[in-house]
Amino acid sequence: MLSSDKKWEPRIIAFFCNWCTYTAADLAGVSRLKYAPNVRVIRVMCSGRVDPQFILHVFASGADGVLIGGCHPGDCHYSEGNYKMLRRFMLLKRMLKKMGIEEDRCRLEWISAAEGEKVKSVINDMVEKVRKLGPLGIPKRISKIDKEIKIIEKEINPEEAVEHA
Q: What is the pTM of this model?
């Protein structure tokens, strides 16, 4: 439980395309635009290189939200990388929904290198939405499931449970 003097803040991981969104984030910083410090940026060469497993991994590792930023459609430096990301994202959203992860926890945005202001507004908007949703808490959920599995294993095969202990 959180102590009353320390307010919970969301942890968001951002995968930003090197050529557009990462450059826009740099522009936002150079322009001294203020945005929430809750986002940790991972620079990727193209949004099309973001594998859905990366997103599942950061959620399993304790992130409360994921932001993916790429070049506008038609402007990808790798021809069709952003279209690849869009197809993956649509499938990922369906999977996350079936896993019980709210839609506002994962977001895809097209942000060009000149849109530092958009980086600021997207980050601030996402942080507010995730803050309202509260902690995702997947590591705790996984720990609880692991404990339940061990109990079931002991009930099914008590001899093996003793050997592995």
A: 0.85
